[in-house]
Automatic annotation (TrEMBL):
Catalyzes the synthesis of the hydroxymethylpyrimidine phosphate (HMP-P) moiety of thiamine from aminoimidazole ribotide (AIR) in a radical S-adenosyl-L-methionine (SAM)-dependent reaction. The keyword Glycoprotein does not apply. [4Fe-4S] cluster binds at C565, C568, C573. Keywords: 4Fe-4S, Iron, Iron-sulfur, Lyase, Metal-binding, S-adenosyl-L-methionine, Thiamine biosynthesis, Zinc. Belongs to the ThiC family. Binds 1 [4Fe-4S] cluster per subunit. The cluster is coordinated with 3 cysteines and an exchangeable S-adenosyl-L-methionine. HAMAP family: ThiC. Its cofactor is [4Fe-4S] cluster. Residues 11-89 form the ThiC-associated domain. The gene is thiC. It catalyses: 5-amino-1-(5-phospho-beta-D-ribosyl)imidazole + S-adenosyl-L-methionine = 4-amino-2-methyl-5-(phosphooxymethyl)pyrimidine + CO + 5'-deoxyadenosine + formate + L-methionine + 3 H(+). This is Phosphomethylpyrimidine synthase. GO terms for cellular component: cytosol. One of its GO terms (molecular function) is phosphomethylpyrimidine synthase activity.
Amino acid sequence: MTNEEKISRTPFPNSNKIYINGEIHPIKVAMREVTLSATRLSNGGIEKNPSVTIYDTSGPYTDPNIEIDIRKGLPRLREEWILGRNDVEILDEISSDYGQMRLNDENLNHLRFEYLHQPKRAKKGTNVTQLYYAKQGIITPEMEYIAIRENQRIELLNEQTKAMQCQHAGHSFGANTPKSKITPEFVRSEVAIGRAIIPNNINHPESEPMIVGRNFLVKINANIGNSAVTSTIEEEVEKAVWACRWGADTIMDLSTGKNIHETREWIIRNSPVPIGTVPIYQALEKVKGIAEDLTWEVFRDTLIEQAEQGVSYFTIHAGVLLRYIHLTAERVTGIVSRGGSIMAKWCLFHHKENFLYTHFEEICEIMKQYDVAFSLGDGLRPGSIADANDAAQFAELETLGELAKIAWKHDVQVFIEGPGHVPMHMIKENMDKQLEHCNEAPFYTLGPLTTDIAPGYDHITSAIGAAMIGWYGCAMLCYVTPKEHLGLPNKKDVKDGVITYKISAHAADLAKGHPGAQYRDNALSKARFEFRWEDQFNLSLDPDTAREFHDETLPAEGAKIAHFCSMCGPKFCSMKISQEIRDVAAAEKGMQEKSEEFIEQGKEIYI
Ligand code: IRN
Ligand code: FE2
């Protein structure tokens, strides 16, 4: 099998990749257009159904016109935009000691890339973050790309479709969302005040711009990692491609193990979405897994190494302060964050303050040279329903709010991580406190799981919490797979996790009244009511499964136009009956009109 055959590239059914031109910048924004069949009217006529445009995270992989060689990486979409700003320098060599060591190690030649990625860095005295540009009043190509992408061509929706928009939507947390069209200027203004962030390291020019903020579509992140020793690098790339295919807006590479640097290089060069990491994991690998041996120097070198490779956001657990650790002593599940527990161990062993906190400004200095965003880690998040919303969790949240202000002072983009395990009635308090303490920096939560009693189904226990907090204003949801708490997710788990989280995110978008969110629901419902089975499959989040389930009992081609499915059978289909009612009503209305007409005429005749 060749590399390429291992990578999923099948386009979605009845879908075309389309590219919308920018108006300010010469950009082409990728989207997916689903073509629909026509409606057969009861009078024998035919009515066309407009195609539906879908926000597309699958990247060039679903465009059959683009050739992809994963040893060379994806086309570098943003390269010209980045170089065009004249504020970066191209480095001749990798600056981190560890990166250099890997490059000089001849034993690793078989894992090398054919394209040599030359890292870029801000020229001395400049700042290359989108936050910096936004504050200067500059609308970057990235911002325009996002505005066009978020709109999903709603400007093309006709009046009828607009009338179908949800009338009840418009939650107060989404109140700033423009009710009509998102403009590039709106994107800029949201970034400038820190209410939204654009994770896009200048060293990941292959990535398509996207935004995380509560006045935009709710985003989802999928975690992937290679803890299994057996997996090959191609398989790692495929995991990322697979997650993006089903809708992951960002990927976090949580790989550990011996080829972590090379794996990440392959993933970044082949990923159409921004990549996040937790650098302390790799730093821990470098000190052979002994938390006490971690040093600021090892950590700093890891940050530079990953920033030069193109990681767009770093989870940094800088809020785990020495004085908060005792607050977790009485908890049922203690500290469940990996990064949080590593830092807590370090702090207690040395009896010193967390070096991520004491070196925070230096971290900012590094991140602004590449436009890496902070994802301020929730190292003290609750890991059980019993521990939700406790003193440790909220003490850390306040510190994260203070750190966000420091990041902003450096024009470094920042968002805040949140829990975890929280019962439904305690979720809103999380969002309220986050808004209060973190000055509206975007919130990014892991679920939360709304109960602890369903291992094997934690994608569901957490999707409930994720939908709720997304509605309340959480900007990005970190997926949970069915394997959570049990083992390493496989490909099916990754897909199930992503689809489950797309449901949470979209349910939140509907409730918030994001312009255009309901369009796809309406189109799918219309197809369902009219028994356009193919359209119903093709508009769904997972067309393969929808089709497979349908065909399990009614595989014949003819069933795809039948006015029923095997759930209720031909006699008990409510949709069929209700269409018949409509037909009868229409016929009766016709008869009524006719008879009224007749009586009118009769009057004339007989009077
Ligand atoms: C998201 C919100 N809170 C935690 N997360 C994610 O959980 C985080 O971004 C990372 O991908 C994963 C594991 O983080 P810990 O366990 O190291 O905190
Ligand atoms: Fe958990």
